[in-house]
Write a structure and sequence with these properties.
Elements lengths: L7 E6 L8 H23 L10 E3 L7 H13 L2 E8 L5 H4 L8 E5 L7 H15 L4 E3 L14 H20 L3 E5 L13 H8 L2 E5 L2 H9 L4 H14 L15 H23 L2 H5 L11 E6 L5 H4 L4 H8 L2 E2 L2 E2 L4 E4 L3 H14 L4 E10 H8 L11 E6 L12 E3 L2 E3 L8 H9 L2 E4 L10 E4 L7 E10 L3 E11 L4 H11 L5 E6 L10 H7 L4 E6 L3 H11 L3 E3 L21 H12 L7
Bound molecules: L-Fuculose open form and manganese (II) ion.
Cofactor: Mn(2+)
EC number: 5.3.1.25
Pathway: Carbohydrate degradation; L-fucose degradation; L-lactaldehyde and glycerone phosphate from L-fucose: step 1/3
């Protein structure tokens, strides 16, 4: 993924500015604390391309406003997109605080008692709250000796989660969402709203007409050598399955072969449109070589493209996966049906985890009774209470979604740098490509079919756009579920056996939407959802608060919620309402609607 240089993490060692003893006694200790945090971040966190996260530390401790200003200048020069203030002692809050309104910020006040680091933490957070510059507060549970340079586990977790989410915010800033085509079948999420991307995510919306695909395919505006390589790889790795079309809608072998060829061309063209390709410049296509600086995109597909041309299943499946004919690499985020809101959700999930994201229709709630009626079998599972949700895209999903990768023997989706070659093979083997259903896709194409292995901890989200409110987020942690073969088959054949299926059981806590799996579906805000690997609802909550996007449904336990300290001033009895009030008060991160 050819993204511009990634933003760094700016570390601000603040200090008591009083010379004549106090400051001198603290200089080395304070700088050591900053260096320890920088080492932790570089050791534990990666950028989406797998390279270690870089930190930039202020040239001196910050004891007053001049040093604070010098640090801000350095952070601007060095492209620091996240701000982390650390200190073991008292400092002068309003004189040393970071006042950049657009950079996610946190403060770690060392919990020692020889010097009042925690008192500064509270004081400077009060300043942030008073000035409308919300900041995250990090304070260790246990008192540490002044000489203790260890970063305790609870502080470490908050530091790393803050930086993960802060970098997601910073990396999105200035990038594009590329709308490939327009509104798909009247899906509201594909009525792309530039203001949402600009004001909440600091991004821009780029748009291309679908004729750009037709034109590039017809004129051969893609790398011919890569095309041949990709087509050969597809023939060797993408097995074709049963043609479910009726005799009079079955397409000929030759037609399907040409649909494979077009599908591969479309994948190359979509990627080139997103991030550019220097090879195109060598072909005399200098403007096309630029791409649209897109970190996420959507493909309109249905309709009208798919009335005349092959569907985008192969394009979307392979670009969203962590591998292709060139080997393992970061996914390219592409939303089916140009559902830009789901595309934003996929982008969040990828930036938080660096793993592929499953795009799916939230198609059906299957109660245990309905499962028994449809399959003749009664089905029970320790993680299933009243029923399960059928996630199945009328399109593809990342092949990582097969669940053929593992962490500790448990199905997972991993960053590309952790995926083994054998796991890539398993993901490909677990996927069958069926000739698409002609009545849906008269232009043909191949549909992606797999079933996600059960037992994967997963988080399902949806970003919705609410008139008068702006974007709002839903989160449901849960697990993928294995159905017995015959039960799955009965339900899958009845639904659509040419598309990718994930059976999902949300974790229920008996409250609100999480009273039952039925209520989770009943409350879902749109036809699509994104599934990420892992129980990462807490990361989505932190990210949403940085972007001032309220969360109106989640099943994350209270102790895992980490938001700016100012959020507490909007209410502590009902965190959901407080979140809404805080987001309304601060407005979108990059400007009011
Ligand atoms: C049946 C339609 O063709 C599908 O595309 C539709 O079910 C959707 O995916 C809507 O999100
Ligand atoms: Mn859909």
């Amino acid at each position: 993924m050819k993204l511009s240089p990634f933003p760094k993490v700016g570390i601000r060692p603040t200090i008591d500015g009083r010379l004549g003893g106090v400051r001198e006694s603290l200089e080395e200790r304070t700088l050591q604390q900053a260096r320890a945090v920088a080492d932790l971040i570089a050791r534990e966190l990666r950028y989406p391309d797998g390279s270690p996260v870089e930190c930039v530390i202020a040239d001196s401790c910050i004891g007053g406003v001049r040093e604070a200003a010098a640090c801000a200048d350095k952070f601007r020069r060095e492209n620091a997109g996240v701000s982390l203030t650390v200190t073991p002692c008292w400092c002068y809050g309003s004189e040393t605080m970071d006042m950049d309104p657009h950079v996610p910020k946190a403060v770690w006040g060392f919990n020692g008692t020889e010097r009042p680091g925690a008192v500064y933490l509270a004081a400077v957070l009060a300043g942030h709250t008073q000035k409308g510059l919300p900041a995250f507060g990090i304070y260790g549970q246990d008192v540490q000796a002044a000489s203790d340079s260890e970063i305790p586990a609870d502080v470490r977790e908050k530091l790393l989660n803050f930086v993960r989410c802060g970098l997601a915010v910073a990396i999105m800033r200035g990038k594009s969402y590329l709308s490939m085509g327009g509104t798909s079948m009247g899906i509201a999420g594909s009525v792309v709203d530039p203001a949402m991307w600009e004001k909440w995510l600091g991004m821009r919306v780029e748009a291309i007409d679908m004729s750009e695909f037709a034109g590039r395919m017809r004129k051969g505006w893609y790398d011919p050598a890569e095309y041949e390589k990709a087509l050969a790889w597809v023939k060797a790795n993408c097995p074709e399955g049963k043609d479910y079309n009726s005799p009079d809608t079955t397409r000929s072998r030759g037609q399907i072969d040409s649909e494979w060829e077009d599908s591969v061309k479309m994948a190359l063209i979509a990627r080139d449109l997103m991030v550019g390709n220097p090879r195109l410049a060598e072909m005399g296509l200098g403007e096309q070589a630029q791409g649209h600086n897109a970190i996420a995109a959507g493909f309109q597909g249905q309709r009208q493209w798919t009335d005349h041309f092959p569907n985008g299943d192969f394009l979307e499946a392979i670009l969203n996966s962590s591998f292709d004919w060139n080997g393992k690499r970061a996914p390219y985020i592409v939303a089916t049906e140009n559902d830009a809101l789901n595309g934003a959700g996929m982008l969040f999930g990828w930036l938080l985890t660096h793993t592929a994201q499953i795009f799916a229709d939230l198609r059906t709630y299957w109660s245990s009774t309905a499962i028994e009626q449809a399959s003749g079998k009664n089905f029970s599972h320790p993680l299933v209470q009243d029923g399960i949700l059928h996630l199945i895209n009328s399109g593809p999903a990342a092949l990582d979604g097969t669940g053929e990768q593992e962490i500790g023997g448990v199905p997972a989706m991993k960053p590309f740098w952790d995926i083994t070659d054998a796991e890539v093979e398993e993901c490909l083997k677990a996927t069958i490509w069926h000739p698409s259903i002609t009545e849906y896709f008269p232009g043909g194409g191949l549909s992606t079919r797999f079933r996600t292995r059960g037992g994967m901890p997963a988080t399902m989200i949806r970003l919705n756009l609410v008139d008068g409110l702006g974007p709002a987020l839903q989160i449901a942690e849960g697990h993928t579920i294995d159905l017995p073969e015959d039960v799955h088959d009965a339900l899958d054949q009845r639904t659509n056996p040419t598309w990718p299926t994930t059976w999902f059981a949300p974790i229920l806590n008996g409250r609100g939407p999480f009273r039952s799996a039925y209520e989770v579906m009943n409350h879902w805000g749109a036809n699509h959802c994104v599934m990420s690997h892992g129980h990462i609802g807490h990361l989505y909550l932190t990210l949403a608060s940085m972007l001032r996007i309220p969360v109106y449904m989640h099943n994350v336990s209270e102790e895992r919620i980490f938001r700016p300290s100012a959020w507490r001033a909007f209410g502590t009895a009902d965190l959901e309402s407080a979140d809404f009030r805080a987001c309304a008060q601060y407005g979108p991160l990059y400007g009011n609607p």
